[in-house]
Amino acid sequence: MKDIRNSSHPFNIEGATALSLLLVFLTVSSGLAGEISGTIKAEGKAVPKGVKVDIVSAVKTYNGETDAYGSYRLYVAEKGKCSLTVHFAQKAPSIQIFSYPKSTRYDFTIEKKDTVYTLKRK
Questions:
Q1: Residue 45 located in a structural domain
Q2: E strand segments, 57-115
Q3: pLDDT (tens digit, 9 = 90+) per residue, 6-42?
Q4: CB burial class (10 A; 0-12, 13-18, 19+) of residue 56?
Q5: Where are the alpha helices (DSSP H) in 7-86?
Q6: Is residue 13 in some structural domain?
Q7: Tally of structural domains, the chain
Q8: 115, 90 contact by CB (below 8 A)
């Protein structure tokens, strides 16, 4: 049996430090922002590019906008109940959503009844 106390391979502090930092990074990164993404349609078509989308958590408001395909993507650091608002046709319909540590997809349709706009999840 080999005596490891007298080994010619001394303890490598740089390797141990790098391994420790990697473990800390992996642990911390699992608690980082959760992605919230999806598409928004109105009257059967994707909303135009540049429609503003806000997600309000208990701590902060996150702002984004749609691309040419009506898609949006925001990163929300907090987990839990949030409000998503779409600024469309000088109206701002909102809906309650939830933020999770992992990616969540929410696809919506904007429905108009008289002069009131509402968001419906598809």
A1: yes
A2: 61-65, 71-76, 80-87, 94-99, 104-105, 108-113
A3: 555 555 666 555 545 444 444 444 445 799 999 999 9
A4: middle
A5: 13-29
A6: no
A7: 1
A8: no
- 22 part of a folded domain: no
Interatomic CA distance for residues 95 and 84, integer angstroms: 5
Give the separation between CA 84 and CA 92, rounded to whole angstroms.
10
Global pTM value: 0.73
Length of the chain: 122
Summarize pLDDT for 75-92 with one digit per residue, the tens: 999 999 999 999 999 999
Cβ contact 93:118 at 8 Å? yes
Find where tokens 């009131």 sit.
116
89 neighbors 20 (Cβ within 8 angstroms): no
Q: If DSSP codes are grouped into helix, strand and coil, which group holds residue 14?
A: helix
Domain that holds residue 96: 33-121
